[in-house]
Amino acid sequence: MTRERLYLFDTTLRDGAQTSGIDFSVTEKIAIAELLDRLGVDYVEGGYPGANPTDTEFFREKRTKRATFTAFGMTKRAGRSVANDPGVQMLLDAAADAICFVAKAWDYHVRVALGCSNEENLDAIRDSVEAAVAAGREAMVDCEHFFDGYKANPDYALACARTAHEAGARWVVLCDTNGGTLPGEVEAIVRAVTAVVPGANLGIHAHDDTGQAVANSLAAVNAGARQIQGTLNGIGERCGNANLITLIPTLMLKTPYRDRLELGIDAARLTEITAISHAFDEMLNRAPNRHAPYVGESAFATKAGIHASAILKEPQTYEHVPPEVVGNKRKVLVSDQAGKSNLLGELARLGVEVDKADPRLDRLLAEVKEREAAGYAYEAADASFELLARKALGKVPRFFDVKSFRVMVERRHNALGQLVSVSEAVVKVDVDGETRMNVSEGNGPVNALDGALRKDLGKYQSAIEGLELVDYKVRILDGGTGAVTRVLIESHDKTTHRRWFTIGVSSNIVDASFQALVDSITYALLKADVA
After folding, report:
1. In which pathway does it act (predicted)?
2. Which of 18, 39, 284, 310 has the CA that lies 20 to 30 A from 84?
């Protein structure tokens, strides 16, 4: 039986950026695009070039290796040509493989929001798509509020979809923009649309305002749509968007989808989905949802009770899918069965070669569990995990030893009479038996420590000249003044364009920060191969 191709379109960097409390920097967007590429989605929508400096900078170059890099923006304005519409021109100038135009599909919005005629709106859809196609870009149209528009005026909503398709749009995407449509309605309306646009060119974009975004996406697929738009962990404005982290394993593991449909994600990538979900949450500096389907810490946790022996002997009877296929692990209170296979898979992904019978793996696994219990979270700190693993396997040179560090924070009035805070750090390091004392001032204790730590590393100094700290996140794991603190640091090498994340945990925030800084520099030297 030939399976039909289903395409995954991620809107985390645009729709997800509208989430309350989330504001992506350019470096964060680059890191998230790399995560999405690693996951294997087909399209990564990066934002709206020209709408703000961050998105404009992000689109100066292509940010994906595998996925189709997509720019988002509005169709041309009524009364202007494409050539005279600055918004459309910014889209055409962006370093994008595809352009996704948002268009009004509800005649009420055409009249009230755009202030133009229905026919002018159709012209804008047609001209914008044709311009993108003529520029060699894959074009698609997000039909905004399509389901509300269809229920109010089905003929006009269908005309918008038909116009986009006939103009050359690869995808016509039906948007449940306010999240108020239910699965039965979605399926019926999508089936009606297939009369004017083939299902192979139809997509679904569902918001989660009634908690139905995943169900609505599946309903649209049942009706023939072959593109799903969604976000990592379902983030998005108001109540969020369709959660790709839930949709992907459902489509790959559940009947009838696994038998009828083919995704661009293979079984090996599926085993990474838990780590990717958690890594994304760490980037957002928030705790992963313990009860998230498939990837949550409690997704495969069972209070054994009188069924303990049955669960341990036949876990498949208590689980809807094996946790290993999504990179998660089984938890039974009487026996935590975290396996060596997850560890081997992560080591293989990082390029660390080790025999599965190596007894050092057991010690490494025990150390990882012990550290995670203390607050470390290695899903989002690949560099720290790789260092930990390589040390356990005896494969990390001792580039330098930190003998001591000290930080002083002084609050005083400067020469202009302004009240300022000044941080000064002193770090003593041993390089090849020679102790070096480095002193640096900085904008805060962490910045001062960072400057002092890498001020003079002797023969290794040239290998870290391009190193910079680009992000710093703190999470309090336990409340109170003696709380355990987790620090996540993102570093970037301007020479190699490599970026990585390191982690530190301590009841002292400065100590936790210093741990992450030491790991960052050690990792940079390891990758520079200067031993």
Report:
1. Amino-acid biosynthesis; L-isoleucine biosynthesis; 2-oxobutanoate from pyruvate: step 1/3
2. 18
